[in-house]
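Table 4 source record.
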Amino acid sequence: MSELPIYTEQRLVEDLFKNYEPSVRPYFNRSEPVHTSFGVTLVNILELNHATETLDTYLLLRQSWHDVRLQWNMTQYAGVTDIKVHPARVWKPDIVSYDNVESDMNMQDSMVVAYFTGHLIWITPLRLRTTCRVDLRNFPFDEQTCSMYFASWVYNGHEVNLTLWGGQESTAFKLKSESMNKEWEIVSHGAKVRYQMYPCCKEPFPDLVVTLTLRRHPMYYVHVFIVPALLIGLLIPFHMLLPPDSCERMTLGSILLASLLLLILKLQDALPNAHSQLPAIGLFYTLSLVWACLAMLSSILVLNLHSRGPRRGKVPDTIRWIFLRSLKRLVCLGSDTYYPINDLETISMRGLDQPKTSLTPGSVSTDRRDLQQQQQQQQTCVGDLTRSAATTTAKLEREVEEISRQLHVMGVRAHVQDARADAVNEWRLVALVVDRILFFLFLFVYLMCAVIVLA
């Protein structure tokens, strides 16, 4: 009666592990190393943490080596070519990640496949968190290069020789998928074996270096961090076009300043608090904040010039020549050539015609006696009028003198008011010219900084 297949495999396992010690390195000659092929398959990129500078990945580790103690003649065991055994029962090359930040690699107990030739293959899934120095100078248009180091923890190069899986770089490090993360795009990847020498030992220590270059998808960060900063920064010079004495100007400047502070706080949440390199966008935020503060100070200066008036006297001739004659046209303020004149209606005084009377002969008859009486009355009236005229003339002279004095006072007062108004208007024009110069200066410097820093 033939043996059941399950008992055949059980007998094979019992025969193989009857005198097997998993802590002993398999070799024909002690001076010969165990050649171990090692490969990595990247399944998923879970996270690249800027604050902790760690890369969280999900991997498949592939290891292959030869164990002379696990060979059998398959004809003696009903043609069984391979068996699956628990990893704790066989010797392993003890390969670990040297830059793992976790206390344990937490390898799952996946089974080891042993073939009748003594060839063993062990493929185990692993979630690995390794260190990755990030360079945020070009955030969010940055590329990050992360490396993972795998080597035997206890064996040197004379005991375990680490080689690439399949003998090639393309087979030693493979990708499960090209697009495995929404934030990062894989630009390049590679693997190589290095031989390290340490002062403590004369033997070489081989390690496998897996390199991964990632490029960030910047669209989200452009909409959240760059576009608002550009728009807010562009409003800094343009808010200076508002009238200097308007309260809306200072209000808008304060709002822009507060908006920049909020953007800086949001950027601080997205990036590590302490980093050796300042991102270009962080530098741009700082420059915009300084620019907003300078714009507020310039608004205060312009408002002070605008409200100086006669308390500072008239504008000095040098300032008048520089700002009101030379620079005024250059900053597109033009010249004061328009003077509106209201149409005045003139009133012509026409002399009133004396009423004419016509006498007809014979309508009135007077005698000589009546004529004499009238002449006497006229002489009496002329005397009275002469005395009254002298009195009236003296009174009129006094009134004319008073009127002349009042007119002189009014003329002096009007001249003073006109001089004060001219001084106020000149200082306001100087303030407008200074304001326009600062507008062009702020706009030019802002655009230049934006191109240099963000390019």
